[in-house]
């Protein structure tokens, strides 16, 4: 459903999502790169565990929360992709590392 415009060009960067390589263009947000690569589900809800996809793409809805390089609660739509970064789906509602209530699982 979502795909890149045909005339887009730029320096390619590669990162990992759930351990799998994803190619993006420099300047992409993590959310845009993942959607363009066909990955719609970026987080799982705390109560039902259902999958959620980015919605607003401008930092308002928080549906795009992911873990980036081990740090949870990162908004994928506001984070510029960087070569070598490791992105994982956020599962549940973890606190920040070292914070009371931290739940990395
Ligand atoms: S998609 Fe809405 S905050 Fe990221």
UniProtKB/TrEMBL annotation:
One Pfam family hit: Fer2_4
Lipid biosynthesis is among the record's keywords: no
Signal sequence coordinates: none
Entries under InterPro entries matching the protein: 2Fe-2S-bd_N, 2Fe-2S_ferredoxin-like_sf
Record bears the keyword Transmembrane: no
GO molecular function: iron-sulfur cluster binding; oxidoreductase activity
The protein, known as: (2Fe-2S)-binding protein
Source taxonomy: Bacteria, Pseudomonadati, Pseudomonadota, Alphaproteobacteria, Rhodospirillales
